[in-house]
Amino acid sequence: MKILIICNRFWPPEVKNRGIGSVFQLVREISRRKIEVHVLTALEKIADKDVFLWFKEENQKYKIVFHVIDLRWFPFSGPLHHGLSKFVYLCAAVKLHFKFKFDIINEFSESPLFFFPNVVYKLLGVRTIHTICTNSVWNFLSVPLVWRVGQILDKVVVTSRLVEKKLLAVGFPKNKLTYLSFGVNLKKFKPKEKKNDKVRIVYVGKEDVKRGSDLFFDAAKKIKGPEFIWVASAANFSPPKINLIKGTKNIAKIFTKVEIVVLPYRSLEGILFEPQTLLEAMASGLAVLIPNFPILREITDGSVIYYQPKRTTDFLSKLKKLIKDRNLRSILGKKARKIVEERFDVNDSIRRLIKVYQGN
Q1: Boundaries of domain holding 95
Q2: Residue 101 lies in a domain
């Protein structure tokens, strides 16, 4: 079986975006199952020599064939950038198919609007699968033309139950829809008994108001006693009273040394799939503090502490509660681990995705 996976900005966790890294985690495992995997991706303006080296190493290690479009010269941004870059991907995919004769083309994107290139793939006689990697459903989903194109596909995979429900509610064929969580490596992320005298609190993410980093920085100023740790891929400054750790590569090890994870999202815009850091924290048996958003409630099912998103005082109050109550942290951590074991094991995700590829 030959599969072409199309994923823009296909950065692994070691290089940049940990959300896109979820796709790569699956691709690595699929390549180990005697399936010939090709990946069509692109380099954006932020790419450097390390990325080229990484692609070469992964080719050799996992036998994944990368086909990389260089878009660092691309002069556009916003919707025009997305539209034109999709056309570039389409041309590249067609050219690759004539050379390698793929059995399946699986495109990962943030929007059903990008169903349209699959019409061309179907005309080539290829089995087409589209994975919608988002936690929200755009307004244009109700446009009949989008639905018609979507129904041409052999399968649409969604990574959120909320998106699945929304699609079914507006009439998308149930037999063409599959839910797939990208999951967590439960051997890598697992609970470890803490022997810390001091409570350690960690925030993982960039400095961004939408991610609520300012809430974390403010808490470090106002709450005395705990150690506050900020883990970021890149940071231009080190806030006072916060221990900054650059790079997320060792996040599993970091999680063995902390008690509380705060993910104070103000918006889930740009968060692909289930927020990966949330699942990893739950798998590590940690107490987690998150805003009371429907998608997050769906994932966590009462195994974390929720605060009202627009109430800073509620965030601080709930955080203080977690800091003081060791028993509560233990109860939440155990419940979170159980949920991940039952619903978000990456090995189950891989098995389900292979079944989709096999037409089951």
Answers
A1: 2-183+345-357
A2: yes
